[in-house]
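FAQ: What does the model actually see?

It sees only this:
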Amino acid sequence: MTTGAPRLSNPAAAWGGLCLGLGLAGFFDGILLHQILQWHHLLSNVREGPLGDLRGQILADGLFHAAMYLIVAVGMWLVWKARSEMSGSGAGRQVFAHLLIGFGAWHLADGILVHWLLGLHRINPGSAIPLVWDLLFLGLGIAALAAGLILKRRPPGPDRNGPVTAMVILVVLMGVAAVLPWRSGSAVTVVFGPDTTPPAVFAAVKAADARMVWTDTKGVWVLSVERPDSVLTLYRHGAWLVSGAYSPAGCFTPKDIGSRL
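And it is asked to produce this:
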């Protein structure tokens, strides 16, 4: 009787788990950091040409999400292809281990290649020390990769849903915490629709108990907000996008905004 870690006889299950981990890591980044926190876009440091404006940045994010959707779909198909093996003891845990490995590998590749070598964006360019956030992002990848490798080597046993449940709860709590600015005087960038009149914008700013810091001629406003619920108030008054950073696309930094005041 063997006491070693179980091995998936069908490689499709392992590759499926890896693809799921890669795709879910991309969604984690895109949904939390691009859309909820709105710290950066995929091509935040591209500031010229058709991809340098807000529409181009959002288009790049959309193509990125489409690629992640495709990777997740491939992962689901591979796991479904190996479904006959899923009834074996520890098989589900092995797939989840490969998912964690893929999740961690994506963060390592993204952090090293995209953040540092190519320099397409940083995690939190509005931070006083962006490197700290880059390292935290890299640490998350290392932790997920290590957890996957440890789980992969565990001996056979009944599958448990604890790790999956804990990850889901963590992601949900991070998303909820990211929606609101928790400091008074936080700067947010607000994009209103092209048909929004100046009186409507001023009414939204007043309702949100905000203060105008900067604006341009294209419907982009930088506001200082005092209340945690100001973001939701701005959305209720017609805002298309409310960024948790100083700019919606990472195209401006606090220094850039200061030069325009």
